[in-house]
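ingest -> validate -> predict -> emit
validate: passed (alphabet ok, no gaps, 80 aa)
predict: started
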Amino acid sequence: MEAEGKTWNYRDILAQFITMHNKNSNVLLIWSGDWPTYSSNSDKYYVILAGEGFDSTDEAWNWCKANNYGPNDCMSIDLQ
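emit:
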């Protein structure tokens, strides 16, 4: 996957997950193909989730901003 000016491989993704997990033990790593939320996208990829729950999209975006994540790094996704 191309993002942030580089091609990410499995090791890069795992390293980012480990770094994030060390900061917040709620962080999860999922495969997009396992979740209906992502099923409309033909591309499948790994997704790092904050492991936080919110009652609204606004609450999720506020969490992203408070934790210094930009719109390309933090998205509000409903996995139900």
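DSSP finds two helices and four strands in the chain.
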